[in-house]
């Protein structure tokens, strides 16, 4: 079973090999959440996730002969890059097996670290079966993404670092996929502060470890915005550790995750992927439970496609009322559109899109309908805008 000594030994091996990322208090998030919040910026690692820690620790434990033969990992995500990057640094050949549909940017990034990428199968399970066979056939060492004590020990170095950097932390909220990160972190952190609360967070769409801890059997979905923790099969070696060393498991929804991603971007100016935001999502969702505590959150990854991020930002703006669609009925006379635009401008609403329609409107023929998407300062501002437009005689309402 993974011990604190294993995590401490991993920390010595990792010294100077991965970033000792900052762990900083967040004044604004603390005020919002009603507790003291500390953020560990693992999204600053070179490959933008903590996965380098476990990968490096595992690889550095290999014999010369194993190094010469090479390593293999099955992953289309952060683990692939962590293994490929450190294998390249250490001059070890790396083979990464991904499903055929893996996004080309991930394939290219992994190839960029000198790894041989093998695309196989339509599903992750197909890729895994092929990867295991390939490793056995070629004598390559498998670097499992989580179910390996050496990998979990590497991830656990985050727990040691956080408590060295911020010794007052009394609670850790940790994203859980297969369970390697939380097993290691709980082991490391408890060795310094035995009474620390370690709480795992999963998405409602992939609740495998939550199920195991709560004796439930909720089904898994197909996909989640937190793809890094979209895991159906937790580590068999890790579950006993999680039962022993983790205090509780919480679930968050997709909306909670998106909201937390946007807050981290706006407040902390930091980009996290879905899995990197679940800790904050849980803190916001279960606020009362953490009131007054000193909570450490691990921003465990920052790999997200820019277009997906752009969509999440826009949806966040809509949810907070800072991007709204208004429908305004006007008399169908020359200058009506200009009048509406001018009034919106005076009210501080910045127009993003305009649609002016007659034919598709259900209004009488002498009227026209204008739909505008406007940027505002938030819900209260939207109410002010609508009230002012109505006072001016326009029929105005917020839609969708
Ligand atoms: C960003 C991110 N967060 C969390 C996890 C979960 O780690 P584990 O599978 O060790 O629980 C992963 C795993 O890939 C990840 O990429």
Automatic annotation (TrEMBL):
Transmembrane segments: none annotated. Its EC number is 4.3.1.17, 4.3.1.19. InterPro entries: ACT_dom, ACT_ThrD-II-like, Ser/Thr_Dehydratase, Thr_deHydtase_catblc, TrpB-like_PALP, TrpB-like_PALP_sf. Keywords: Lyase, Nucleotide-binding, Pyridoxal phosphate. GO terms for molecular function: L-serine ammonia-lyase activity; nucleotide binding; pyridoxal phosphate binding; threonine deaminase activity. Pathway: Amino-acid degradation; L-threonine degradation via propanoate pathway; propanoate from L-threonine: step 1/4. Its cofactor is pyridoxal 5'-phosphate. In the native structure, TdcB is in a dimeric form, whereas in the TdcB-AMP complex, it exists in a tetrameric form (dimer of dimers). TdcB also dehydrates serine to yield pyruvate via analogous enamine/imine intermediates. Catalyzes the anaerobic formation of alpha-ketobutyrate and ammonia from threonine in a two-step reaction. The first step involved a dehydration of threonine and a production of enamine intermediates (aminocrotonate), which tautomerizes to its imine form (iminobutyrate). Both intermediates are unstable and short-lived. The second step is the nonenzymatic hydrolysis of the enamine/imine intermediates to form 2-ketobutyrate and free ammonia. In the low water environment of the cell, the second step is accelerated by RidA. This is L-threonine dehydratase catabolic TdcB. It comes from Piscinibacter sakaiensis (Ideonella sakaiensis).
């Amino acid at each position: 079973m993974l011990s604190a000594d294993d995590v401490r030994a991993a920390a010595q091996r990792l010294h100077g090999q991965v970033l000792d990322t900052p762990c900083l208090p967040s004044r604004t998030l603390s005020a919002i959440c009603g507790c003291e919040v500390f953020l560990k910026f693992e999204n600053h690692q070179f490959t933008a996730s903590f996965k380098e820690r476990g990968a490096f620790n595992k690889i550095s434990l290999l014999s010369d002969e194993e190094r010469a033969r090479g390593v293999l990992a099955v992953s289309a995500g952060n683990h692939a890059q962590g293994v490929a990057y450190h294998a390249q640094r250490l001059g070890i050949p790396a083979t990464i097996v991904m499903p055929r549909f893996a996004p080309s940017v991930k394939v290219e990034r992994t190839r960029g670290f000198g790894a041989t990428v093998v695309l196989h199968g339509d599903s992750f399970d197909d890729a895994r079966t092929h990867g295991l066979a390939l490793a056995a056939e070629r004598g390559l060492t498998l670097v499992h993404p989580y179910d390996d004590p050496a990998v979990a020990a590497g991830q656990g170095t985050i727990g040691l670092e956080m408590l060295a950097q911020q010794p007052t932390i009394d609670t850790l909220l940790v994203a859980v996929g297969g369970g390697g990160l939380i097993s290691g972190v709980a082991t490391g952190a408890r060795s310094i502060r035995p009474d620390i609360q370690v709480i795992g967070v999963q998405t409602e769409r992939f609740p495998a470890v939550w199920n195991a801890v709560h004796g439930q059997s909720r089904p898994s979905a197909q996909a989640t915005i937190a793809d890094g923790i979209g895991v159906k099969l937790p580590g068999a070696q890790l579950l006993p550790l999680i039962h022993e060393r983790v205090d509780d498991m919480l679930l968050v929804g997709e909306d909670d995750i998106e909201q937390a991603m946007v807050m981290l971007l706006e407040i902390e100016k930091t980009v996290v992927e879905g899995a990197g935001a679940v800790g904050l999502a849980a803190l916001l969702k279960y606020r009362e439970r953490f009131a007054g505590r000193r909570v450490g959150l691990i921003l465990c990854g920052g790999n997200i496609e820019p277009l997906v991020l752009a969509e999440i930002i826009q949806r966040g703006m809509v949810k907070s009322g800072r991007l709204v669609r208004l429908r305004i009925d006007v008399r169908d006379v020359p200058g009506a559109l200009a009048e509406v635009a001018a009034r919106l401008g005076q009210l501080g609403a910045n127009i993003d899109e305009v649609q002016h329609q007659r034919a598709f409107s259900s209004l009488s023929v002498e009227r026209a309908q204008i739909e505008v998407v406007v940027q505002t300062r938030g819900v209260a501002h939207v109410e002010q805008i609508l009230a002012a437009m109505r006072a001016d005689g326009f029929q105005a309402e917020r839609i969708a």
